[in-house]
Amino acid sequence: MKKTVEKVAIIGAGPGGLATAIALRKQGIDARVYERAGEFRPVGAGVGLHPNGLRCLDAIKPGIVDILKCSGCKVEKVTLKTVTGETIMTYESPMFKKYGQPTLTIWWYRLQQILASYLPSEVIHLNYRCIGFEQNENSVITNFENGKTVESDLLIGADGVNSTVREILIGDSQPRYVGSMSWRAVVNYKDDLLQQNEVILMKGEESIVFLLGVGEGNMSWLARKLLPDSTLSSTLAEAKSRVLREFANWMEPVTELIAQTDPKRILEGPICDRLPLNQWSYGRVTLLGDAAHPMTPAAGQGANTTFEDAYELGECLYNFPDLQTALTNYDNRRIQRTAIIQTHSAAREKLYYQPFQQTNQQLQQERENFENWMYDYVPNSELRLRSWQ
Length: 389
Ligand SMILES: Cc1cc2nc3c(=O)[nH]c(=O)nc-3n(C[C@H](O)[C@H](O)[C@H](O)COP(=O)(O)OP(=O)(O)OC[C@H]3O[C@@H](n4cnc5c(N)ncnc54)[C@H](O)[C@@H]3O)c2cc1C
Prior knowledge:
By secondary structure, this protein is of the alpha/beta class. It has one domain: FAD/NAD(P)-binding domain. It is about 35% helix and about 25% strand. Strands 6-5-14-15-16-13-17 form a 7-stranded mixed β-sheet, sandwiched between helices. Strand 5 (about 75-80) and strand 6 form a beta hairpin. The longest helix has 30 residues, at about 325-350. The chain starts with 6 loop residues before the first strand and ends in a 14-residue tail after the last helix. Bound molecules: flavin-adenine dinucleotide. Flavin-adenine dinucleotide binds near residues 13, 17, 37 and 45. Flavin-adenine dinucleotide binds near residues 11, 37, 43, 108 and 184.
């Protein structure tokens, strides 16, 4: 059977690029990943994987989710607290009962490592920073900073929120700073702060802190604050002093946790998104994950919608007779859904910083309906029937 594409170049070895390479190689497509970093370093913090993302990963490669579950933490309990550590509310996570998969919290670095372990090592090219590409009717030539070029049938930009591929393809300038800065890290698990399988959300004035287990004897802290200035600190030590200063009036265990963190492990970053696009694919080039639909972390859907993209792009390339039809269908399947989640995440980002309050029944119902729609996403297995044949 003739394949829609033989050779695919994927820019970026984040969760999106790696999951897509696994999905395409399963079909016998020669998909290769090109990453600007020289090595996979132990960076990032805890990432929340929700039922929609886990279901797509499982459809891409049965077994991955079980491995991720062995590495990360299945969230069973959520606790809301004040800055002084007073508990406001504790509730059981409804995810597994409602959607058949839990929320899984895992270290970003371990997620990257586990996904990479499903690919032959020669498929991932490190020290390949994409700096440009040119396409014609028959192929795309991608240029890298190291002087190398790669020719492929399809180029996928999975190169994150500051995507070079998007910049060249669409040119819609810089991501939008939404007004909050974040600092996050992974540290050794401390059982006096956090129970196993618990997520703690603490709210202060215009600031929040999450504490979560990420498995394998580690936990993660994520601190966010509304700040007009999105300038990054010039050194790692300065970033640490800044977060300590911004969270100085928090309960001691939180400030102590930050104080004890190795500055090399603290990832500082502005929270950014972009407005939704109405087209991702042009000719032989398309976008995926944060490059296509960067969103604020408020709904925890960055990685999850990215896994949906990876699955659906794989299915479209498998099912449709030519590249153009496959990419048009990919855009049609993904753009509307991710635009809704992007818009929702932007609105919810601001609500995060408001004091805890009871929502009325109607708002509660609307929220539940939205969450059902978001988490109940089922990878479209019917497409596998190859309806075009
Ligand atoms: C280092 C890092 C740590 C992160 N940590 C967390 C976290 O702790 N929690 C969380 O929720 N989310 C985190 N994220 C974001 C999260 O991964 C994404 O929101 C989501 O998973 C979508 O993934 P993605 O693969 O589309 O993009 P990303 O995860 O951003 O991956 C993009 C990849 O492309 C590479 N890249 C960028 N430009 C180029 C280029 N020109 N040429 C070649 N390669 C390029 C980057 O180095 C990166 O590996 C992190 C992202 C990065 C890059």
